[in-house]
Design a protein that fits this description.
33% of the residues lie in helices and 24% in strands. The protein has 2 domains: 132 residues, HUPs (Rossmann fold), CATH 3.40.50.620; 96 residues, putative n-type atp pyrophosphatase, domain 2 (Alpha-Beta Complex), CATH 3.90.1490.10. Strands 3-2-1-4-5 form a 5-stranded parallel β-sheet, sandwiched between helices. Strands 7-6-9-8 form a 4-stranded antiparallel β-sheet. Helix 3 packs parallel to helix 4. The N and C termini lie far apart (40 Å). It is α/β, with parallel strands linked by helices and 242 residues long.
């Protein structure tokens, strides 16, 4: 392990990546950059909605953000199988990390990852880190989602649901705060529909609007967009509160 190198937090602004960052800071890891990949369309590897808000979250957190746009690395949009597509999606991330490794005097020590259960994502990140010779810090990996959710709430995370795409999740969930009542409702939906308590697999997506690692909360005005089976928030205005 490179004990003197810098850590980079793979960061979307959602609850899982935010929790990985928070736990890394608690553990005393030297997180010098946040890194957000902005997918061009749907993605197998990355959180998609509202990634543009990551910059505001980074401002509140106080850590510099690196934005990665796949097209800037020559990524091609073409019909490929899921495995090949995932491998292609890792390429711009790996290229950005190689640049950061050269930027820091002592190189990179590792990356923080918000993976919970997706071996598809975790295996590709692990393989990438092995190629780069760096470590991973994945505090959510294969843990009980009920325990993770309870820890997030106990720590003071304020979490908003910004996108839903699963049976049992209707328009009323858009903009809802992921609090203890919402977790209880999700548990019932898990029993009835199989909805994952943390939305693993894109069943729902979130934005952390406040937490102990943030100096100011994210506030926003929005409208909901709903097609009858899935929907998301259209954020009209966003700012850092007091």
């Amino acid at each position: 392990m490179n004990e003197t190198g810098a850590w980079v937090s793979l960061f979307s602004g959602g609850k899982d990546s935010s929790w990985a960052l928070y736990r890394a800071l608690q553990e005393g890891l030297s997180v010098e950059r946040l890194l957000t990949v902005h997918p061009d369309g749907d993605s197998y590897m990355y959180h998609v909605p509202a990634t543009e808000l990551a910059s505001l979250a980074a401002e509140s957190i106080g850590i510099e953000l690196v934005d990665v746009y796949p097209e800037a690395f020559g990524a091609e949009q073409r019909d490929v199988d899921a495995g090949e597509q995932g491998d292609k999606e890792v390429e711009p991330l790996e290229a950005a990390l190689r640049e950061l490794d050269a930027e820091f005097e002592n190189g990179l020590a590792g990356v923080t990852v918000g993976a919970v259960e997706s071996e598809y994502q975790n295996d590709r990140v692990e393989a990438m880190c092995e190629r780069l010779g760096i470590d991973t810090f994945a505090p959510l990996w294969q843990r009980d989602p009920r325990e993770i959710a309870a820890e997030m709430l106990a720590a003071g995370f304020e979490i908003k649901i910004i996108r839903v795409a699963a049976g049992g999740l209707d328009e009323s969930w858009l903009g809802r705060t992921l609090d203890a009542d919402a977790i209880a409702d999700l548990y019932e939906l898990h029993e009835e529909y199989g909805v994952h308590l943390l939305g693993e697999g894109g069943e729902f997506e979130t934005l952390v609007t406040d937490g102990p690692h943030m100096s100011r909360p994210i506030e926003f005005d929005y409208e909901t967009e709903w097609d009858g089976t899935r929907g998301s928030l259209r954020i009209d205005d966003v700012w850092l509160g007091e």
